[in-house]
Amino acid sequence: MDDIKNKKPINNKKMSNSKKKAYRKRKAKKSRINYKLKMWIISIIIILGILTLGTALLGGMLFKIDFIEVNGQSIYSREEIIESSGIKSGENLFLCNLSLAEKKIDSANPFIDNVKIKRKIPNKIIIQADGAEAGFAFRNQDNNIFIVSKRNKIIEQTEDIPENVLEIRGAELESYNIGDRIVYKNQAIKNIVDEIIEVTMEDNLTIDKIDITDITGISFRYDHRIKVFLGMPDDFDYKIATAKEILENKINEQERGKLDVSSIKNGGKSVFSPDYMID
Fold first, then answer.
1. Which domain holds residue 80?
2. Per-residue pLDDT at 4
3. pTM across the whole model
4. Long-range contacts, stretch 192-200, CB < 8 angstroms, 24+ apart
5. Domain check: are 25 and 109 in the same one?
6. Residue 135 CA to chain centroid, in angstroms?
7. 171 and 112 in a common domain
8. 126 and 138: one domain?
9. Contact 104, 124 (CB under 8 A)
10. Is 145 found in the same domain as 124?
11. φ, ψ at 187 (rounded to 5°)
């Protein structure tokens, strides 16, 4: 009881003043931080604005296209290629859409098969436009012949199939529009064609026609004189390797006919039948 009596009373007024001072101090500190943050944000915005304006001004003055160079072998003139690109002298080097320009050149010029465009600082555009090389021939339902490049672009319609062009019989395309990239109606047919081409190329076997009109009687023609029957779309590696051995070592170079290797994988024999009416 004596201890309680001896304790001094708490000065509530003094405590209240101390809290007010601490609060005002925290508030002042927070205000300073907020002020610095706002000034920092404003400074960044001003700097970005200056940089953007400077870039626009410098781009307009320093990076105008003055020269357009065209490289590559094609049937089109430099002027035709530049005009089809849509790129014009005087426009900004960095604002022109190179990807779009490449697509424009490709679609407007069927005999151009590969286009690459690049910038060269400070004022030059370089267009590399390579001419299309005929690789394949397809026939539509009306038996019209369409020549397709080695990069699968339809480049022209012709009356005859050129020399060194591989004819693909029995494969239908989605469209036969000049300038389009080919799309097979049947993906399975495309896979068969691709595999035969790949295997014959690996075996260094020169062929000039693939016929998949009958999916169970697939064939290809060798050297315009030997029709090789592969039969069903299986075991192409083995069948074509066997055909290569027979064609190069067992059949005279002047002979024409039909070589059947369709059943050799199942124990059958390869059979060559002379026929001088091979188409």
1. 67-131
2. 44
3. 0.74
4. 192/218, 192/233, 193/168, 195/236, 196/220, 196/230, 196/236, 196/240, 197/166, 199/236, 199/237, 199/240, 200/240
5. no
6. 18
7. no
8. no
9. no
10. no
11. -65, -35
